[in-house]
């Protein structure tokens, strides 16, 4: 019995080492850090349910992607919260948070900070502002366990704190809460989240390494205290439309074109996100608007098998108006599920229930769900399309419209609230462009 136990342990260790080698190859492949047609700066991006994810690797029995999404959705519904991590737009009335809080559903990348560079695995949030990672030394019991060592500021020869009296601190104060330390006049930050967690620390600068590119003086939050938990990721890197996001700093410091493009991977594939010029081939463009640091599109309609839903009764005072007969739809990859006003969500559910074949609609705490019909000989889910200005369409097939629960129910990958928000499930495995310079967004031409 002891011999068998030892052999089993050796097999597990061997598998672990092989996985580590495989993951290192995926992360360090130079081809993923550049493109053949542009000079843009590219980051490899993996789904948080990829086998190389810190969350997956720490689990004895890794959950399936759909299972983890269902568990997260159920937990968030019980807490009367939605799927968004960052603070919502000011006119979004329902409190929201994101499943990326626990790293169960989201997208991650690797960057290196300091001199010498120390690799950090971070979550990508296209609506996030100030980027941050955990730093050592940490306030007593103030840091959670992450995959790999914390960034030790004492070992970097290029690390500096940002003083309160500088323009840099004022730039941070424009997007997050700041204060001054009484001891050394360091610029301090605090970012509270809607799930009552928060990160706080000092605003810092250091050399950031992305692939072969070194970016000196990159500004970020050095988190020395995080309330509650945050999975095993080092922090968050944001792409919001403000001066302090990762995106804006790369554009300025590396003289890149002001745009970012990405391919969102499945849990078993490899994707990327890049800053700078992009390939326009095969894309159709729709106007993209900004409000504060948020991005949003002009949604002109939603159809189910070609039949339009009634959106006319969903106007709200204080909501951005992108034009007549159009509705502001926010963009946020930090949200797994898309959000619809409750009336529109209910109409979508009714329309899908009318057009679906081989499934029976059920009452479920998980939202609009369907059970497989026992005697069904055909299973068919209707095609839903989102329509944007300039006749741009986003086609939602079954994989983008629904997700499967552990008990094989099919549920709509949407959430009811008071606004429109486009989440990541609806655009997964799709090449997209957010051209901030021209205020347009590119979708695959259909």
UniProtKB/TrEMBL annotation:
Claim: Metal-binding is one of the keywords in the record: no
Any Pfam family the entry gives: TAXi_C
Q: Which domain of life is it from?
A: Eukaryota
Gene3D superfamilies linked? Acid Proteases
- In what residue span(s) does the Peptidase A1 domain sit? 107-444
GO BP annotations, alphabetical order: proteolysis
Task: Output this protein's name.
Answer: Peptidase A1 domain-containing protein
| Biological source species | Hordeum vulgare subsp. vulgare (Domesticated barley)
């Amino acid at each position: 019995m002891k011999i068998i136990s030892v052999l089993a342990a050796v097999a597990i260790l061997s598998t672990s080492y092989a996985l580590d080698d495989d993951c290192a190859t995926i992360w360090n492949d130079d081809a993923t850090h550049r493109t053949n047609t542009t000079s843009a700066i590219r980051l490899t991006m993996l789904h948080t349910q990829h086998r190389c994810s810190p969350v997956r690797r720490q689990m004895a029995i890794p959950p399936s992607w759909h299972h983890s999404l269902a568990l997260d959705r159920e937990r968030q519904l019980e807490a009367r919260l939605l799927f968004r991590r960052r603070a919502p737009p000011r006119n979004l009335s329902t409190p929201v948070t994101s499943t990326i809080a626990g790293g169960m559903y989201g997208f991650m990348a690797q960057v290196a900070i300091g001199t010498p560079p120390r690799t950090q695995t971070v979550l990508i949030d296209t609506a996030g502002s100030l980027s941050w990672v955990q730093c050592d030394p940490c306030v007593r019991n103030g840091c959670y366990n992450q995959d790999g060592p914390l960034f030790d500021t004492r070992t970097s020869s290029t690390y500096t704190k940002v003083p309160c009296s500088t323009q840099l601190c004022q730039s941070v104060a424009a997007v997050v809460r700041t204060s001054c330390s009484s001891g050394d006049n360091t610029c301090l930050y605090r970012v509270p989240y809607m799930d009552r967690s928060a990160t706080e620390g000092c605003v810092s600068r250091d050399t950031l390494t992305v692939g072969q590119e070194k970016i000196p003086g990159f500004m970020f939050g050095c988190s020395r205290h995080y309330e509650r938990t945050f999975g095993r990721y080092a922090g968050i890197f944001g792409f919001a439309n403000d001066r302090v996001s990762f995106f804006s700093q790369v554009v300025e410091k590396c003289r890149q074109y002001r745009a970012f493009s990405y391919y969102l991977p499945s849990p078993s594939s490899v994707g990327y996100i890049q800053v700078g010029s992009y390939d326009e081939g095969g894309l159709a463009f729709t106007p993209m608007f900004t409000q504060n640091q948020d991005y949003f599109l002009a949604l002109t309609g939603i159809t189910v098998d070609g039949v339009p839903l009634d959106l006319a009764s969903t106007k709200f005072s204080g909501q951005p108006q992108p034009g007549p007969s159009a509705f502001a739809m926010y963009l946020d990859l930090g949200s797994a599920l898309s959000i619809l006003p409750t009336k529109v969500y209910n109409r979508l559910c009714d329309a899908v229930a009318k057009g679906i074949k081989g499934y029976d609609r059920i009452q479920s705490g998980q939202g609009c769900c369907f059970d497989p019909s026992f005697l069904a000989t055909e299973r068919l889910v209707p095609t839903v399309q989102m329509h944007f200005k300039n006749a741009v369409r986003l086609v939602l097939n079954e994989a983008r419209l629904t997700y499967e629960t552990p008990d094989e129910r099919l549920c709509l990958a949407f959430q009811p609230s008071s606004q429109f928000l486009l989440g990541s499930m609806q655009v997964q495995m799709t090449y997209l462009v957010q051209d901030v310079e021209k205020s347009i967004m590119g979708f695959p031409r259909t």
